[in-house]
Amino acid sequence: MSSQEISTQSTAAADRDLIFVVIERHRELSAHYDAALSVSAKLDKGSEFDTADEISSQRSHALAEHANVLIRSAPTTIAGVIALTRYVGSLREWELPDDDAWYRVFLEGLADAIDGIAMAQRLGRDGD
Question: The organism sits in which domain of life (predicted)?
């Protein structure tokens, strides 16, 4: 499958379920934070380190804020449920919210999303 086909599929999926946009943004923020940490790790104490450390701190904050958005986001399609579940399951600890009970919020939201999707499907079948 070509990268253009994958991109087209990703765009089509995002049109149906915004969870794909939320996941992609989290992926970008994780990469930005990881890159900033890589720079900081190579520097000795001093002004360059302080600057790099400040950038790392800002990116960490942005990632933490979006991690909270991620776990509170509700997919609207079964494909979105699967993608979100797999994505969250693949995350490293530093990519997740600091709150030890984040998984409760995530699982409750996921259950509500699945229930909503199932209800919409039932209504769709009943309306035909």
Answer: Bacteria
Of the CA atoms within 13 Å of residue 86, those in its CB half-sphere come to 7
Q: What is the DSSP letter of 96?
A: S
Is 39:51 a contact under the CB 8 Å cutoff? Answer: no
Q: Tell me the C-alpha distance between 53 and 24, whole Å.
A: 25
Helical segments of the chain, H only: 3-16, 19-41, 47-72, 78-90, 102-127
pTM (predicted TM-score):
0.79
Instruction: Encode the chain (128 residues) as per-residue pLDDT tens digits.
Output: 555 555 455 555 556 899 999 999 999 999 999 999 888 888 888 888 888 889 999 999 999 999 999 999 999 999 999 999 999 999 999 999 988 899 999 999 999 999 999 998 888 776 65
Q: Which amino acid is at 91?
A: L
79 contacts 41 by C-beta, under 8 angstroms: no
